[in-house]
Every structure is written in structure tokens, then in C-alpha cells.
Amino acid sequence: MKIYNTLTRKKEEFVPLNDNIVNMYVCGPTVYNFIHIGNARAFIVFDTVRRYFEYKGYKVNYVQNFTDIDDKLIKRSHEENTTVKELADRYIEEYFKDADSLGIKRATVHPRATENIDDIINFVKKLIDKGFAYVLNGDVYYDTTKFKEYGKLSHKNIDELKAGARIEVNEDKKNPTDFVLWKAAKEGEPSWDSPWGKGRPGWHIECSTMSTKYLGKTLDIHAGGPDLIFPHHENEIAQSEAANDAEFARFWMHIGYLNINNEKMSKSKNNFFTVRDITSQYDPEVLRFFMLTSHYRNPINFSHDLLEQSKSGFLRLSNTVDNLRHLLDDALDRELSDEEKAYKEKYDEYKRRFEEAMDDDFNTADAISVLFEMVRDINTNIDGNSPKELIEYILDIFLKLSSVLGISYKKRELLDDEIKKLIEKREEARKAKNWAEADKIRDELKKQGIALEDTPSGVRWKRI
Ligand SMILES: [Zn+2]
After folding, report:
1. Residues of the binding site for ATP
2. 203 CA distance to ligand 1 centroid (A)?
3. Where along the sequence do coiled-coil regions lie (predicted)?
């Protein structure tokens, strides 16, 4: 199995450090808002990586953090006149709703920064004791000139990085690339006691601390979005390798950028989409499928047309599953002919090719092409005369391979547009005084978890 390693810029053979256990850390969301589709791409891709390891028989310890204290959370909590804790709790819940809908499995542990403050403080202390960090007016900074390999992940030397560094508020720090490990508290900010006074952790230190705590000093894989390579992951390496005297991550995986209609996604360009924006219009499995139709390291372009293409592609897969299930209902329970026995083996070959694509740095695009080849073969060669044993065999392989991609063809819940259509139908029935029909639609919606409320200004609905 080969994985492209950002650190060496090469595809390398992957063998875990311990037997069949894969220790994997993925940088999680900062929980001050709904996740956007760029975040979703990373979480879907690395969930697929995890699923493939599990399919191959590895045990995956998967840790994904929640950044639940930082400037953005503090600012937003002030704007909304609430606490940082309440805001974080709310958006962690929303994260899980989105992740569940996209088939992203729960991590083995989802540590929160604010629940690991003691460990973070100890980690910072260690860096000071070892001479890698210094205290400055209640802040603690990492001295990037002390770590000789600083820049090894982003493949830049420290002078280039220093020249490009943004001049920040604290001009007193020793080098422009030095970064904050611990921030002194300002008035009105949440804070914790520390040897350097009241304050809160910087962002980079939480990942070093929590990955060491839950997975040990050396990770098999550390993964995240492309914008994290520098400075976040570079800084994580500097912290962890200085504190632990051990290699931090053996493999670094980063996804490519996601663009919208060939432009960078940004709120100011009005082309910013949350997962919720898309899944209210499309089956979440279609969004997941879309994200996996490109190789994870390539940039992916997101547009309405491309999503529509994915929707029809996904439907071809799910119709095949429906057809096979339907055929099974009446399939003949008879022995396979010699010809059928030979034909059955063709599906082992499809499976082998799917695995070959995934073994080559998780090439989901090629793996999906194999599924479509299977669809064409099934549609041509499987029908009402096919024996039960053959249909079961093919369906089993098809579902197993799909589940590696996190696709289960589950009964889809109603999307916003479908709900609106049903509400309109109910309104028409009511106008025609067809109460039985109106009640039937209401009950149908209720069964699907949608509650209606008749108000003077019209019908309102919500998910219950
Ligand atoms: Zn991180």
C-alpha cells in the first residue's frame, strides 16, 4: 500500500509502526460555525482512508480534535451575547449532525482543547525547560530558531519563512516566525491559571498535546487540509519533536483545495457554502460521492452542474443495488452452471482492481470507475433467470466496496425541496376540503421526522 507523504514529497510504502494498528490524527474543526464544504472534503477523505484501513483488517485509532477556544470563538460569543462554552457545545452538536449525514464515522476520541488544559500547560512547561520556548509578558512563545529542522514539512528554510512571516501584534517576540504557545488573558476572555498567569492555549499546541496524549509520541499518519501545512503542521512538528525527542508523524497527508466555479471559496465573493446549504438540496451521500470522484490530492471544482452529474452517477449505483435486491426476492435457488461459476469469478477480479486503486494512494476516482464497470456488467448479464447465489455474491461485493467509500444507499430522508412540495400538496388538499388527504400528508411527514405548524402567516415546518 502506497501513500503520498507531504514530508518527503514521495509516494511511500505504508507499514504501521505497531503490527496492524494505525494511529491517525486529523485536525478537527474550530467550532464557532457550521462546517463548510472545504472542511467536509477533508473529513470525508480521511474517513474513507480510515474505512479502507479497516476493510484491510487494520485497527485504526482515529483522533480528531475540536478547537473550542480561540479568537474566532471569543469574537462570535461576544457578538451573540453568549459564552464560548455554549457556542462550542452548539456547533459540536451541529458538526455531528453534518458528519453523521455524510457517513463520517465518529473518531475513537474527539478531544476538546478546553478539557485538556493541564496536559497543555505541562507540554508548554516542558518546552520552556528544554530551552525551546520563552515567556514574554504572560505569553509564551516557541523560539523557531532553536528547532533546526523548522520548515521541513513546507520545504522552506527558516530565512524564507522569516521573510514571509506576517508582522503580528506582539513585536517583541524574538523572531517573526515564533508562534504563541500560551496567550495571556485579556479582560472578558475565558482563562485558566498557569505558571505564567491567567491565559489560554494557542492553537498549535493543542494538537501536539492531544495527539501525544491519545496516540503516543509517533503517529503513523497526521492529516488535514492544505492550508494547515504551514504554519499549523510545521509548528506541531517543532513542538512535538522538541518535547518528545521522537519523530512526530511518519506520514503527512494533505488534501487538495476545493474551488467554487473555479474560484477560491470565500464569504466576500458570496460563493461560500456550508455542508447544510448543500445537504438541504441534495442527498448527503451525493455530496460525499462527489468529493470522492476526484483524487484527494487534486484540486476539486465545485459547481451546481458537477454536483448534478454526481447525482446522476450516484443514482446509477443506487439503482443497481435496488435492482439486485429486487431480483433477489424471486431469484431461483439453484446450482450455478459452469458458465455462471466462471462469470462469478469476474467479480473477484473487479474487487481486486478496486483494491489496487485504493492501494495506490487511495485513488477513489479509479475505484469508482471499477464500480461503474460492475454496474454495466450487472445490467447486461444479471436478470430474472440468474440464480440467487450469484446475485447475493455480486450484491455483497458491491455493498462492501461501496461501504469503503462510506456509501450505504440508505433510505434517504426527505430533502427541504421535497418537504416544501408535500406541504404545497397538503395546502391544495385543504383548500379542496379534502381533509383525509391533508391528514395523510401530515402523518407521512411526521413519520419522516417533520413537524408542521399552522400559523396565521402560513405553514411552518421543522425537523423533530
Ligand atoms: Zn491540528
Report:
1. 267
2. 8
3. 333-360, 412-439
For residue 232, how far is its CA from the centre of ligand 1 (angstroms)? 6
Tell me the per-residue pLDDT of 115-139, one tens digit each, with 9 for 90 and over.
999 999 999 999 999 999 999 999 9
Residue 435: in which H helix or E strand, if any?
A: helix 435-447
Q: How far apart are CA 302 and CA 113, in angstroms?
A: 32
- CA-based max dimension of the chain: 82
d(CA 67, CA 69): 6
423 CA from centroid of ligand 1 (Å): 44
Question: Which chain residues have CB less than 5 Å from ligand 1, an ion?
Answer: 27, 207
Annotated binding site: 27, 207, 232, 236, 267
Cell representation of residue 255: 488534501
pTM: 0.89
Q: What is the pLDDT of residues 306-356, one digit of tens each?
A: 999 999 999 999 999 999 999 998 899 999 999 999 999 999 999 999 999
Handedness of CA 113, 115, 119, 124 (dihedral sign): positive
Name the burial class of residue 237, with classes exposed (0-12), middle (13-18) and buried (19+) by CB atoms within 10 angstroms of its CB. Answer: buried
